[in-house]
Amino acid sequence: MKATIITPKNADKNSEHESHFKLENIPEFPPQSQPEKVISLEEFLVKPPDRMEWVDGNLVEKTGMTFKHSLAQSKLARFWGNYKDSSGQGGEVLTEILCRTSKQGRRPDVAYITPELLPESGNFTAFSQSFPLIAEVASPEDSGEELFAKAQEYLESGCLEVWLLWTEARLIFVNAGQRWQLFNADEVVNTQRVLAGFSVAVSELLA
Q1: Strands 52-55 and 126-127
Q2: Distance in angstroms (rounded) separating the CA atoms of residues 128 and 158
Q3: Distances (CA, A) of 107 to 75, 101, 122
Q4: Distance from C-alpha of 106 to C-alpha of 153, rounded to nearest angstrom
Q5: What b/e string do you get for 159-169 counting C-beta neighbours within 10 Å, with b at 16 or more?
Q6: Contact present, 175 and 190 (Cβ < 8 Å)
Q7: Residue 195: which of 96, 102, 82 has the closest Cα?
Q8: Rg of the chain over CA atoms, in angstroms?
Q9: 108, 134 in Cβ contact below 8 A?
Q10: HSE-up of 191 (CA within 13 Å, CB side)?
Q11: Where are the alpha helices (DSSP H) in 58-188?
């Protein structure tokens, strides 16, 4: 912002110079911005912003989506979706739909909800617990420690099985509530407790 300097007509040169000097050296401070409103988890779940999660009282945007991340996410959603139809198990496969864990408001990359847990209305903004089967695809910004901590959070909030996919390393970790199992690129990964009987080659999913 540029300051406007007004000099009286009857001012002499010295006073004009002095006035000019004083005004031009007055620091101009921008108006203080109002602090962002901190909302509760309950408020967030009523009308959640797109691509946002609620983590420890803060709104956190999901970022770091790469081509490989998006490809693995869409492939797994398609594979799970096709299998739940062909096997007759029903339910729905969802991507980045909000769910409430015991601590946060999360948007899993891919999730499967069984027919028994589907709301009668067939529609919801946020699921009241973790989905039974959840997959998270690691992005370049994710740390392993944070991703495993998120998986544990899901498991403590009603999730029965979690998949963690590392596209660059071509590795998949699966936990069905007891211990982690590692599947390498030359192996076939399969569901343990939910969507029974599903399997896919790691190399096909993370090609």
Answers
A1: unpaired
A2: 10
A3: 18, 10, 19
A4: 10
A5: bbbbbbbbbee
A6: no
A7: 82
A8: 27
A9: yes
A10: 19
A11: 67-86, 144-155
pLDDT in tens, 134-170: 999 998 888 899 999 999 999 999 999 999 999 999 9
Task: Count the helices and strands in the chain (H runs, E runs).
Answer: 5, 13
pLDDT of 78-100, one tens digit each? 999 999 999 999 999 999 999 99
18: region left, alpha or beta (phi > 0 left; psi from -120 to 50 alpha): alpha
CA dihedral 98, 188, 82, 61 (to 10 degrees): 20
Kindly give, in sequence order, each residue whose CB lies less than 8 Å from that of residue 159, ignoring residues fewer than 6 positions away: 130, 131, 132, 133, 134
Predicted TM-score (pTM) of this structure: 0.76
Residue among 154, 159, 45, 41 at smallest CA distance from 98: 45
User: Strand, helix or coil at 19?
Assistant: helix
Q: What's the one-letter identity of residue 132?
A: P
Question: Which pLDDT score is estimated for 130?
Answer: 96
Spacing of C-alpha 76 from chain mean position: 17
With tokens 């390498």, the residue in question is 184
82 is written with which tokens? 């096709």
In sequence order, what are the beta bridge partners of 135?
110, 163
| Residue whose tokens read 């869409």 | 74
Residue showing tokens 């390393």: 169
